[in-house]
Specification:
The complex is a heterodimer. Chain A is an all-beta fold. Chain A is built from no helices and 11 strands. At the A-B interface, β5 and β10 of A face β4, β5, β6 and β10 of B.
């Protein structure tokens, strides 16, 4: 079983739609969780950290469910500029315990 | 405030050759991690350098080696290149303050093509 699993998509949504991505992880001892955004042929960029209490940054909301071992990212009022691949990242102790999902491809359509 | 910089941006090599990739971390960061990202996949951890030593290593063969310099910059060396080494190589820097977990900041990457 992979350390981190994501639905690769693609998700094609119209502008203004709400879209949600889920990511599951296998190691219950994982400590930190992040969402990264990666544009085509670019480097990943930190979108937001994910906290146990859930956190929101503008149109983006991240949730963590430790009991079910998944994290989610909700994007409200999708913009064309949100089109990208969203990478789920799960970190335990030590750099070799940091795992990336394969990413979920989102395309926002005019 | 300079972010993470990598060089070169693109590189074409032949099977069996050796390659060196370079990375300068973000200002204030002391830890450098290297990742390999194949097309359509998430980044895979190669190794991490801190205080000029390899601190952690992923599941990569010994053909992959590295170095960190006193100014925190780092090199990734790959010997005896294989076609399967073709990928985007990402350098990420972070801060290893005690008890702190610092998110990674990535450079633009070096796209390596092995022919």
């Amino acid at each position: 079983r992979k350390e981190v699993e994501q639905d690769p998509g693609p998700f094609n949504v119209p502008e203004g739609a709400t879209v949600a991505f889920n990511c599951t992880y296998s190691n219950s001892a994982s400590q930190s969780f992040f969402w990264y955004r990666q544009d085509c042929r670019k480097e990943p960029k930190l979108l937001m950290s994910v906290y146990s209490s859930g956190n929101e940054d503008g149109r983006f909301t991240a949730q963590l469910n430790r009991a079910s071992q998944y994290i989610s990212l909700l994007i409200r009022d999708s913009k064309l500029s949100d089109s990208a691949t969203y990478l789920c990242v799960v970190m335990g102790t030590g750099a070799n315990n940091l795992f990336f999902g394969t990413g979920t491809r989102l395309t926002v359509i005019p | 405030d300079a972010g993470v910089t990598q060089s070169p941006t693109h590189l074409i090599k032949t099977r069996g050759q050796q390659v060196t990739l370079r990375c300068s971390p973000k200002s204030g960061h002391d830890t450098v991690s290297w990742y390999q990202q194949a097309l359509g996949q998430g980044p895979q951890f190669i190794f991490q350098y801190y205080e000029e030593e390899e601190r952690q290593r992923g599941n990569f063969p010994d053909r992959f080696s590295g170095h960190q310099f006193p100014n925190y910059s780092s090199e990734l060396n790959v010997n005896a290149l294989l076609l399967g080494d073709s990928a985007l190589y990402l350098c990420a820097s972070s801060w290893s303050g005690q008890g702190q977990i610092s998110p990674l900041h990535f450079g633009n990457g070096t796209r390596l093509t092995v022919t």
